[in-house]
Design brief:
It is a single chain. Helix content is 45%, strand content 30%. Strand 4 and strand 5 form a beta hairpin. Helix 1 packs across helix 2. The N and C termini lie far apart (108 Å).
């Protein structure tokens, strides 16, 4: 029972740690930015991935408070970026779909900053951990891995489902096109055969 309670507590801590995760829609010919006010010497990390839309690519750039570009990648499906701030101010993360004229994108974003607080207050002291504290730390690390794995699997599932839907649409349209083409060819062949018989009747009448 004690381990169950500790596991629930640690899971809450993991969920709080990943509270900056979000998935948003980016229409075609649009740009969307996110802003974060950070102190100096704060490390932040950025992970993003295009879940659906077009060729699954997007432009992304990160700027500091003076609008200096810290990171820029064009037409990327997914990427990661980490940086330690050199000044205090508002940092900007932007995603651009302006190069696309009709593809609507869905993008996953995970933005983390700062250092994780010690799980146990005694970990800040130069003393050995007790067996219970060591167990808590081990569970915490395992749950972090589980949470990251679940996020990765959710992204893969959403990405693969979108691809499957697009493939099904293409197969459906192709099947409809083939069906229409078969009808056209069949009607054309019938009309051609009827024209052959009409020509023979006309020639016989002329001979008589």
């Amino acid at each position: 029972m004690l381990l169950l309670s500790l596991s629930l507590l640690l899971l809450c801590n993991v969920l709080v740690l990943f509270a900056t995760e979000l998935t948003f829609e980016l229409p075609d010919n649009e740009k969307q930015c996110f802003y974060e006010d950070l102190e100096k010497d704060i490390k932040f990390e950025l992970d993003y991935q295009v879940i659906s839309g077009g060729n699954y690519d997007v432009d992304c750039f990160v700027t500091d408070p003076h609008d200096n570009i810290l990171y820029r990648e064009d037409k990327k499906q997914y990427d990661s970026f980490s940086h330690t701030t050199a000044m205090k101010g508002v940092y900007k993360v932007c995603f651009s779909n302006e190069f696309s004229t009709f593809s609507h994108k869905s993008i996953y974003l995970d933005f983390r900053h700062g250092e994780e607080e010690p799980l146990i207050p005694s970990m800040t002291r130069a003393t050995a951990l007790t067996q219970l504290e060591s167990t808590c730390v081990s569970l915490h690390e395992i749950l972090k891995v589980v949470a990251e794995s679940q996020t990765w699997y959710r992204l893969r599932e959403a990405h693969d489902r979108t691809r499957a839907d697009h493939l099904m649409e293409r197969v459906t349209f192709w099947s409809i096109g083939e069906t229409v083409l078969l009808f056209i060819i069949g009607i054309g062949q019938v009309m051609m055969l009827k024209s052959f018989f009409s020509d023979k009747k006309g020639s016989v009448a002329a001979m008589t």
